[in-house]
From TrEMBL:
UniProt-listed PANTHER family: HOMOSERINE DEHYDROGENASE, PTHR43070
Source species taxonomy: Bacteria, Pseudomonadati, Pseudomonadota, Gammaproteobacteria, Lysobacterales
Binding site for NADPH: 121, 145
Pfam families: Homoserine_dh, NAD_binding_3
Protein name, entry field: Homoserine dehydrogenase
Residues at the catalytic site: 248 (proton donor)
Cofactor(s) in the UniProt record: a metal cation
Pathway named in the protein's UniProt entry: Amino-acid biosynthesis; L-threonine biosynthesis; L-threonine from L-aspartate: step 3/5; Amino-acid biosynthesis; L-methionine biosynthesis via de novo pathway; L-homoserine from L-aspartate: step 3/3
Top enzyme class: oxidoreductase
Binding site for L-homoserine: 233
Length: 386
């Protein structure tokens, strides 16, 4: 049983119980019941009957196949049971059967303004709708990077829609799985600073892999372990190729004031061509194609006392233009970016006030529970701020 499903078995009570006042609650539609979506449901379930739980009313939960909805409010645990992603409760049999999933249902269930869509998918179809929902006055809270981390055009549409309607876009979970990275960049600029540069570890799964890889165990075995722990993208090649880090770099860069396109980021992929060409279904069996090249890179670094880390960098040049790159680097063992444990992300930010000594933000950068917490922090913030 994975982490998110376990949370349904023994939910933690995270806040003080209070009497229900459903009229104050903001309607929420959750898209995605995978690793992150299940953890969102578990966290909402643990909030049932508490002050935090009163602020969000779950009315729709969907995955790519099926959806359940109830305008009067869904019990998160029951919704998970009905969708087959958690143990089924005794009285679930009396609930209406799930219906086929359709993104068109969101308008009807949330109404036109004030509700929140929580995007816990990795779906291009869902990301393509972010700007449209915002333009209707529906808030969007997302873990998916395809909204802000792809074309500049889509990023501008999202920003314009927020500007026009006042709807908010909660993106904390897109970089650093909820760490205060985007917020810090925005607050520095709101206080008059210009961002000069940033450098850091932006992938939780790659951090975990290179924190654990010792050249002895096959790298592919560790990739499977990271996937099973819920750290990788649905297709781990999105992490190993640097694409996920490219998207995060693009999101951070834009938040830092640099309107770059994805192709402006130089990417050094770890995925050999024969692995890149396979269908998603064939990837697992072919992961050992990573083993020899990674062992060679590890051995080269080890001989010099260096550590391998997958690093993202954005620098500004004298003409004010930015240059960004992501890839594997062999760092001296005492380099600040070589420190860290588990899935730690670590990002150094240089700005006017932090011109020589950077601001450094570090903490777990992947995993269902931290990501779900980041999503729900944003939902509470954009819904009805208190
Ligand atoms: N796993 C992690 O540590 C983190 C993940 N993220 C992001 O969270 C998102 C979800 O990741 P996981 O939960 O690991 O993926 P997953 O593959 O476990 O789950 C994805 C879910 O989205 C659903 N889905 C796909 N298309 C849909 C549609 N059109 N309508 C409704 N549901 C749809 C799928 O059925 C599935 O339930 C990804 O964008 C990922 O980049 C962000 C930060 C950390
Ligand atoms: N796959 C991602 C999950 C969070 O965005 C990562 O490894 O960082």
């Amino acid at each position: 049983m994975n982490v998110a499903a376990q949370a349904f078995v023994s939910p933690r009570v995270l806040a003080r119980p209070v009497a229900a006042t459903a009229s104050e609650a903001t309607r929420v539609a959750l898209l995605g019941t995978g690793t992150v979506g299940r953890a969102v449901l578990a966290r909402l379930d643990a909030w049932s009957g508490t002050a935090l739980g009163e602020r969000l009313q779950l009315v729709h939960v969907a995955n790519s196949r099926v959806a359940v909805r109830d305008a009067a409010g869904l019990c998160p645990r029951q919704a998970a049971g009905l969708l087959g992603v958690a143990p089924v409760a005794v009285d679930d049999a009396r609930r209406p059967a799930p219906e086929p999933s359709s993104l068109d249902a969101i308008d009807a269930v949330l109404g036109t303004t004030g509700g929140i869509v929580i995007d816990a998918t990795a779906s291009e179809d869902v990301a393509a709708r972010h700007a449209g929902w915002l333009a209707q006055g529906v808030h969007v809270v997302t873990a998916c990077k395809l909204g802000q981390g792809t074309s500049l055009r889509r990023w501008r549409e999202i920003r314009a829609a927020c500007h026009d309607t006042g709807a908010q876009y909660g993106d904390s979970a897109t970089v650093g799985a909820g760490l205060p990275l985007l917020r810090s960049l925005r607050e520095l600029q709101a206080g008059g600073d210009r961002i000069h540069a940033f450098a850091g570890i932006l992938s939780g799964s790659l951090a975990w892999l290179f924190n654990h890889y010792d050249g002895m165990r096959p790298f592919s075995a560790l990739v499977r372990q990271a996937r099973d722990a819920g750290y990788t993208e649905p297709d781990p090649r999105d992490d190993l190729s640097g694409e996920d880090v490219r998207r995060k770099t693009v999101i951070l860069a834009r938040a830092a004031g640099f309107e770059i396109e994805p192709h402006d980021v130089e990417v050094d992929s770890l995925v050999p061509r024969e692995l890149a060409l396979l269908s998603k279904a064939a990837v697992d069996a072919a992961l050992p194609a990573l083993d020899v090249p990674l062992r060679q890179r590890f051995a080269g670094a080890y001989k010099k006392g260096e550590k391998l880390r997958f690093v993202a960098r954005l620098e500004t040049r004298e003409d004010g233009r930015s240059h960004a790159r992501v890839g594997l680097e062999a760092l001296p063992a005492d380099h600040p970016l070589a420190a860290g444990a588990g899935t730690d992300n670590k990002v150094a930010i240089w700005s006017d006030r932090y011109a020589t000594q950077p601001l450094v933000i570090q903490g777990p950068g992947a995993g269902a529970e931290v990501t779900a917490a980041g999503l729900l922090d944003d939902a509470l913030r954009v819904g009805r701020p208190r």
